[in-house]
Amino acid sequence: MASYKAVAGTQDILPEDQPYWRLVEQTVEDVARLYGYQRIVTPTFEETAVFQRSVGEGTDIVEKEMYSFEDRGGDHLTLRPEGTAGVVRAYLEHGLFMKPQPVKLYYIEPMFRYERQQRGRYREFNQFGYEALGETDPAVDAEIIGLLMQIYARLGLRDLELHINSIGDKVCRPRYIAALVDYYRPLYDDLCQDCKVRFTKNPLRLLDCKQTQDQPKIEGAPKIMDYLDEDCAAHFAEVRRLLEAEDVPYVVDPLLVRGLDYYSRTAFEVMPLEFAKRRQSVVGAGGRYDGLAELLGGRPTPGIGFAAGMERIIELMQEQKIPAPAWPHPLVYVAYVGAEARPEAVRLAAELRRAGVATTLALGDRSLRAQMKQADASGARYALLIGEGELERGEVSVRDLAAPEGDERRKQVSIKRAEVLAFVHPGASR
Ligand code: HAM
Fold this sequence. Notes:
By secondary structure, the protein is α+β, with helices and mostly antiparallel strands. The protein is built from 15 helices and 16 strands. It has 2 domains: 15-172 and 228-319, BirA Bifunctional Protein, domain 2 (2-Layer Sandwich), CATH 3.30.930.10; 332-424, Anticodon-binding domain (Rossmann fold). Strand 12 (332-336), helix 12 and strand 13 (359-361) form a beta-alpha-beta unit. The radius of gyration is 29 Å and the shape is elongated. The structure holds histidyl-adenosine monophosphate (HAM).
């Protein structure tokens, strides 16, 4: 028989990594509560058109990366490559525009993209994301960016850089794109293969090219900042002013354009300082998407949000040697000797667990010595021991495993069976 492995670009998250996942999820939830965001869960797959319309036809995601399939009923479906489109679809479908605005939502979900494999870039990965729908006020932009930075800070991450830009809206961006195309036209023959496609399909993405030959062209290209109309420029100025009021440091990055089509005005990305140029190290990104609801056939609804890659965040935490609290050890290990004592040991363990005491029960026919070894390895504070003698006397023997081997305190003491629960109070873990 062939042996199986996890599919390329996917990974198992083993128990030893779970403390990090729990910590990140917990932090995401704590911060949601602080800022008044509520959780939403949308389906893992949507109609393919939801992503084609929103993320956009000329984007890498839609062109090359979607896990799309026809189901047995002939419907065209796609495993979600990102979370925003589904959230906006749900907002429209359930009439959340009837609620007080903005509607503030967050999610923690796996995403799927058929990407070229490299470190930090996976085909199934997990994001947490926040979306605020129904409000144009730049204060929401500043708040949601500040919220993202707050999450990193609470996780203990250091040396991150926040890049922001405004990419204009449907009024001023076309003028900028026209200028960009005019600038690139005479350079066309000298562009890399991907950029030739971008030139016709999605000129804004020309600024995102990573090929060395195209870098000088990017540097000389017109800057969107010079093409913003008055409203977009005022919006961006206010976002910056409020970020400063929040004490959130940022860098204005005129080349930041984002890889999804639904954005307008504010766009931002967060990355580790030393990797400022490597796209696969971006640990969180987002922006405003005021036209997205309309693209999905809904009423005009402003929105802004971000998503952050949890694998990348955890890898960075581990690189920066940030600890995550381990899963608590059991408080009690119940050992027994002899067939007679076995039901009593099972009864005692069940009783402790019902009372909320984390308990590990010895299994099999092991010697007392072997059981004590296991008790030590389990990290339990107390070993409780039941043998024939204890059974007869209505007692349980206790060893305090917190004391080292040979120490007086480790010596066995006897307590009444009825007093066990009072003895092993849950506050006493090792
Ligand atoms: P995105 O830039 O495509 O935006 O992804 C957001 C984050 O997800 C990235 O910064 C990165 O941390 C993580 N990520 C993306 N692709 C991968 C991958 N293949 N492997 C590991 N991590 C990855 C969005 O998804 C938008 N929906 C964000 C948004 C929400 N905009 C507005 N609201």
